[in-house]
Amino acid sequence: MIPSTAHAPSTVRRPPRTAQAAPRTPSRAATATASIYRELRADIVGMHRKPGEPIVERLIAETYGVSRTPVREALLRLADDGLVEIFPQSGTFVARIPLDALPEAIVIRTALEGAAVRYAAQRATGSQIAALRANLVLQRESEAAEDLNGFHEADERFHALIAEIAGFPGLWGFAQQVKVHVDRYRRLTLPEPGRIGHVIDEHAAVVDAIADRDATRAERCMAEHIDGLLTAIPHAQGSNPFFFTGSPVAKTL
């Protein structure tokens, strides 16, 4: 007779536990590559390293206390960005600003920021408008202090704020991807007498339109602001011909 198991407790066999892999941490070389890439990129975009200037792997490796391998990897990433040129027999140099790339980048930026500012004009709260006006104060303080880097940072934050107010912060992220050469060229224009003050006035017009909930005017003011970058290219090229490559561009907007 087979004993009944109707009332016997059941035993559940669980599959053996597999050990979870420990989270991977970046290697020292990968961390060094990222750091070198980030700082060199900031130096190039900020025009602290001028177009045509050589970049010496050995000196950078010594500065960071690393081998040349992470330096080379960082430079390859910068080459992919179009910010350096690597010549195997000659060395690595900061790339010149490609004139033919500027108009398209400016057109793309106009489209992205035009959409952002329209939504911002429709959605901005009182506190968000106050944040934009506070940013304008910061821009004017940077102008008074002749702090070009401080103004550039405040300018970048101004445009990022508009995208955030619009509810689409990714629009500014996309703009940043395409405007790297525009930023380099734009930094050449900032020291010109009256240039920063003019830019701030254009920013103020954008904020006023947002505050008035006038999406059409806000978009127009933003387009006029960015269009100024296109019209100023020939002057910047004429003042710094060695920093550019390619044929002169005409206004196409």
TrEMBL record:
CDD domains: WHTH_GntR
InterPro entries for this protein: GntR_C, TF_FadR/GntR_C, Tscrpt_reg_HTH_GntR, WH-like_DNA-bd_sf, WH_DNA-bd_sf
Superkingdom as given in the UniProt entry: Bacteria
Pfam families reported for this sequence: FCD, GntR
Gene3D superfamilies assigned to the protein according to its UniProt record, in alphabetical order: GntR ligand-binding domain-like (1.20.120.530), Winged helix-like DNA-binding domain superfamily/Winged helix DNA-binding domain (1.10.10.10)
Start and end residues of each stretch annotated as Disordered: 1-30
GO molecular function, one term: DNA binding
Iron-sulfur is among the record's keywords: no
SUPFAM superfamilies the UniProt entry points to: GntR ligand-binding domain-like, Winged helix' DNA-binding domain
Residue spans of biased composition, Low complexity class: 17-30
Domain HTH gntR-type: 30-97
Protein name: GntR family transcriptional regulator
Organism: Azospirillum doebereinerae
Lineage: Bacteria, Pseudomonadati, Pseudomonadota, Alphaproteobacteria, Rhodospirillales
